Amino acid sequence: MYKIAKILAIALGVVGVILWALIARSEDPSGSNTIDIMINLGKYMTILAAVVALLFTLVNLVTHPNKLKKALISLGVFALVVIVSYAVSSGTDVDLTKMAERGIETSEGTSKTVGAGLIAFYILAAMAVLSMVVSGFKKVR
Fold it and tell me: Are 71 and 139 members of one domain?
């Protein structure tokens, strides 16, 4: 599987270099279809990379049950953080009438969701900093 992905990546890289050379040699690159082809190639390569990464991750999780257990625990902690942040979020911090006067249509539910996202970000950022500090102290000892 890795060899197939590697060969496919090399082939797409060669196609990208050829298209780049065609753009570089063109007198008016903005009018050519080569740029559209490059953009589409970039999209497809991004999608391919995401699919291959997801596939390798799932295969690795299935073949190693202890990693699957850790991943499920991490997913559960993340879900708990999101649920707690949504429960704590008030959603009424924003004056919805002033937002509507400015042409921004929003509801209390949208405001609550945005607030929950911010709170979840703060909690996760604090957990990341805390884990780095704990890891640093463990390395010192």
Answer: yes
Phi first, then psi: what are they for 93, rounded to 5°? -75, -15
- Whole domain around residue 126: which residue ranges? 65-141
pLDDT for the residue numbered 29: 59
Report the C-alpha gap between 130 and 128 in whole angstroms.
5
**pLDDT for 60 beyond 80:** yes
Cα gap 107→91, rounded to integer Å: 9
For residues 60-80, average pLDDT: 92
Same domain, 100 and 127: yes
| Number of domains, the chain | 2
With 80 as the cut, is the pLDDT of residue 113 above it?
Answer: yes
What is the C-alpha to C-alpha distance for residues 81 and 45, in angstroms, rounded to an integer?
33
